[in-house]
Design brief:
Elements: E1 3-4, H1 16-40, H2 46-66, E2 69-74, E3 77-80, E4 83-87, H3 95-101, E5 104-109, H4 115-127, H5 139-146, E6 151-155, H6 177-189, H7 207-222, H8 225-239, H9 243-262, H10 266-286, H11 290-301, H12 304-312, H13 319-330, H14 337-346, H15 350-366, H16 369-374, H17 380-391, H18 396-405, H19 411-422, H20 429-432, H21 441-451, H22 457-469, H23 477-490, H24 496-504, H25 514-528, H26 531-541, H27 546-564
Antiparallel strand pairs: 1-4, 2-3, 2-5, 3-4, 5-6
Helix pairs in contact: 1-2, 1-4, 4-5, 8-9, 8-10, 9-10, 9-11, 10-11, 10-13, 13-15, 14-15, 15-17, 17-19, 18-19, 19-21, 21-23, 22-23, 23-25, 24-25, 24-26, 25-26, 25-27, 26-27
Amino acid sequence: MATVKETQPGPSSPGPADEEWQAAQKVLTSLQLTRKNYSLYPEDHVNCKRALEQFWLQLETFLQTHGNFRFEIEKDRLTFQGEEILTEPPEDGNLPFTLFRDGIQWLEFQDGTDTKEVEEFLRILNKYRVLTDEPEGDLVTAFWQAGLQHIQVEVADFFWGAEPEADFEIPPAKEDVDSLLSEEEEQESSEQEPVVSIDPATLELTPEEEAELQEMVRLEEKRDPTADYLNALLDSLLELREKENFDPILESLEEEFHDSLARRDFEATLKILKSLHHVRHVCESETTWAIPIIDNFFLTASSSQSLRPLQAAWSEMDTGQIEKIKEILLALQPEAIHTLGSMLLQTPSLRLQQMLTEVILSLASRDLRPLEAMLDRPEEDLVQKLVLVVSSLGGERPIQILAKMVHHSSARVRQAAVKGLLRRGPASIKELFHLIEDEDDSVRRLILHHMGKERNEVSETLLLQYLEQGKIKGSDDKHIIACFRTLGRCGSPRSIPFLRQTLLGRAWLPDLRSSAYRQGAALALQAMRIKGAQQVLEDASRSLKPGVRRIARKVVQDQGHQSKE
């Protein structure tokens, strides 16, 4: 584990030196973080890009403020101006040891370093972070071949395995060479002496050596052959440029994809998908013929047959496994929505339903067409859930889809579509007002509830025109009263003349609905809670018409009870 010195900077004297040391600390800390991201993700991954940007920002700031940035390297630490900044165990993959192993004594970023040089430096550093059995070149050679003009290194004469304190035998002087050769010839011509027997005790391992040997065995046993196999396949995809070689490798990866899901090795599954995304990105500029082949792999991986092993394991998965599966599904193409929609309908777990919904939302944000095609499915429950997903998406096309879904045969689907449109702003109420006469009461109430949230001129005008016509189709008295009550909540003083005429007049009211209209008008006046409306109620409570007087007095009485409460 890496350790970065935090506390106080190395130089003891305050002032510019402190600032320079702290800036150096930020650069090396950022370099360490970037190197780790490069070892975990493809170079085009968002995490690598962000880390690279942050490292470049810290380095550029240092170069502009303090000039060239040089740090020294030991096998287990990096130092700046003689002070330790970062320490790590001397192991393959760790930053100090990677540099020290190839004999680099110090490394310097010089003024003029640009982003391309930094990116190439990180790529090389990542490539040679672990020493293989048969290394192809080394770090120093790679730096030299890359032509990094503003990134300089100092290399020791002796390195790799030689400790700084090791004793080196002084070679013989030139005049002694002849005598040495003569002695060797005499020794070779003489009879060989008997081989001296070796004492077994001298072969016994010390406790430290035995512990080291056990650790080597443990690491070898822990090594995952599947990971090595995948690495070899994926590396081959980047190296090969012929279609006849490319196809068999993808077929092998497809088989491994299915097998990894079946044995629940989700790390391997995710590695395959992420790596293929990287390969596809590389092929976009170099081998475009490979793009359809890779896309077909993702299409097959998104099928219900490929993902069936996940459903078989739903009930046995813990939180960590569900999160890993979510990563896998997010790495698929939007066409996977067809399969995920069916899975969403079949799983009883609310936690899994939530996870699948989030994945569908993310995939649909990349391409809405697969989700839109699913809205023609006959399953009412599924379509309702998908409409809720559409409601969460931005843009013009989701609005158009929701406007279409308000005419769906299912009331639950219509209701979900209405909610989605109303959340986008009050202007939607004009296009949705016709649903005030929807055959389903829940949809009608949803429209009225939205209109009655606040004083609104648009809602008031729509309701006034609707109620003044007096031809409410197929609605019961409860709906009429609900419309008047909503008018009172969203209306203004300009509605009072109509409400006064409705409560006190008679000529225009439909005969069968006159009682409902008068009761609704009285409730609207009560809901307005303004002086003019209150005066109409008081006048109606003194009316000579018993029916009007009774309605007005009851409303005023209820109003008094509400005030006391």
